[in-house]
Amino acid sequence: MMKDLRLPITQRKKFTQPLGKLFSGKREDTIGEVISFFKKERKINKGVDYRVYCVGDIVTKDFLENVYLREMIKICIIDEKTKRQKIDTPFTEFFEQIIELENPTGTISKDMWSKLKQLIENNRRVLVKIVEGEEDLLVIPLISGFSLLEGIKSYVFYGQPPVTDSEKPIPEGLVCIEVTTQIKKMVSRLIKLMEKY
After folding, report:
1. Which member of 130, 147, 154, 192 has the lowest number of beta carbons within 10 Å of its beta carbon?
2. Domain map of the chain by residue range?
3. What is the pLDDT of residues 70-126, one digit of tens each?
4. pTM (two decimals)
5. Are 19 and 173 in contact (CB under 8 A)?
């Protein structure tokens, strides 16, 4: 992707829909559900390499604070803010690399596509700090950057704020996206809705 992309106001509602399975509820409840989900998955798919990617500060914090979930983490993308308040990230020593990038609010910077793809391929534990702008839309280039490989299951997690102004209200929770061919096609359709600038 050679252009910066911006989310048009007219398309915002389409981007508020959960891209994957929604674990609805408060943080303390959803994390327990995610642990149960992975325990069942790993029992069924023995020998599969499970990899987790977190987008957002609260999701990152909750996963890092849980020993079971932390061992699966590969990349976390944060901006060190939640609801405009500063937030500290625990266990930064867990990461093999910490990098700082810029991504203006409401956009996907053109550099993100190649940078995130490279980080995925490097298969290291990386903390990406967005020092200028925000990480909200970076789920899209992250999913685009995956190659689907046999023996590896990749999951992207992000927080879902409650949405009350749509036809069907969406509760607060945690979105879990298994990266599949179908999800990659869905993300490609979303990319086409964005403005190049």
Report:
1. 192
2. 46-153+179-196
3. 999 999 999 988 766 778 888 899 999 999 999 999 999 999 999 999 999 999 999
4. 0.94
5. no
